[in-house]
Each structure stands twice: as C-alpha cells, then as structure tokens.
C-alpha cells in the first residue's frame, strides 16, 4: 500500500513539473499530453496568448473537460506572469 502511494505521488510530481517548451513557454508534462492528444501545435507557439488562441478555437466548438482545465491553467499562468 505504501509503495502504491509513493508511486502515485511520484506520478503527480512528474505530471505537474514545468518544462521549458521554448523561450517564453513553460508547460507541465500533463498539459503537454493533453495538447498532444488534441493535436494542438504548442511547440510552434511563441507565447501563452498564441497557445490560448488555439485552445479557445477548439473549445468554442466542443466541450472537453481536460482541455478546458489546461486552458484555464494557461490563462492563469499568463495572467500572473504579466504582474
């Protein structure tokens, strides 16, 4: 049981670790997985606004909970980076 908990904690830490995508963009492993799942070219985006544009375009047409969560996190990160 204890080993499973440690494994789960390690996975959460891995998923939530920020990784530098390019000069202005940092995403967690989880965010990258979700963006890849929906074929969003996040590697080509120069900033969070550009990435959010791709996300909002898709979310205007479909309701995707995991992508909405990622969009919210990205919008929040962009907001706090401006301050």
Question: What would the keywords be for this entry?
Answer:
65% helix; 83 residues; two-stranded antiparallel sheet; globular; 11% strand
Task: Describe the overall structure.
The chain has about 80 residues and is mostly helical. The chain contains 4 helices and 2 strands; from the N terminus they run H-E-E-H-H-H. It has helices at about 1-15, 30-35, 50-60, 65-80; strands at about 20, 25-30. The chain has a two-stranded antiparallel sheet with strand order 1-2. Helix 3 runs antiparallel to helix 4 (about 65-80). The longest helix is centred in the last third of the chain and has 18 residues, at about 65-80. The model has no long low-confidence stretch (mean pLDDT about 90).
Quickly describe the structure:
This protein has 83 residues and is mainly alpha-helical. 65% of the residues lie in helices and 11% in strands. It is built from 4 helices and 2 strands.
N-to-C series of helices and strands: HEEHHH
Mean pLDDT: 90
- In terms of DSSP E residues, the strand content is 5-15%
Largest sheet: 2 strands, antiparallel
> Radius of gyration over alpha carbons?
14 Å
CA-based shape:
globular
Q: Which bin fits the share of residues in helices?
A: 55-70%
Strand order of the largest sheet: 1-2
Question: What would you call the structural class?
Answer: mainly alpha
Number of strands: 2
> Which regions contain 5 or more consecutive residues with pLDDT less than 50?
none
What gap, in angstroms, lies between the N and C termini? 43 Å
Helical segment tally? Answer: 4
